[in-house]
Design brief:
Length: 95
């Protein structure tokens, strides 16, 4: 997943991200995902930053429907602003 910086690329800005479960089986989800919160730092000139989410191989049957989680941006710093699309809902489908 990527976060895009809009309206200029001058200067260094930061924004926080936080991932929360949107599935009732939140314990199962938290065992499967490595990164759940952090700070994204856009350096001068940088326009796109990935949020790396490591998903571990399942060792049990997944609940139905598939797990969902939300990534929300917050706490802009150093002159950054968060636009109207401050969150993304992600559904993880495992084959």
């Amino acid at each position: 997943m990527y976060v895009k910086r809009s309206f200029g690329s001058t200067g260094r800005v930061t924004v926080m991200f936080d991932m929360t479960s949107k599935t009732s089986e939140s314990v199962l989800l938290s065992e499967r995902i490595e990164f759940r919160q952090g700070t994204l730092t856009f350096e001068d000139g940088e326009m796109l930053i990935p949020i790396a989410i490591k998903v571990f191989k399942k060792m049990y049957h997944e609940p139905s429907p598939p797990p969902k989680y939300e990534i929300k941006l917050s706490s802009p710093r150093l002159g950054a602003q968060i636009g109207p699309e401050d969150k993304a809902l992600i559904t993880y489908f495992d084959d």
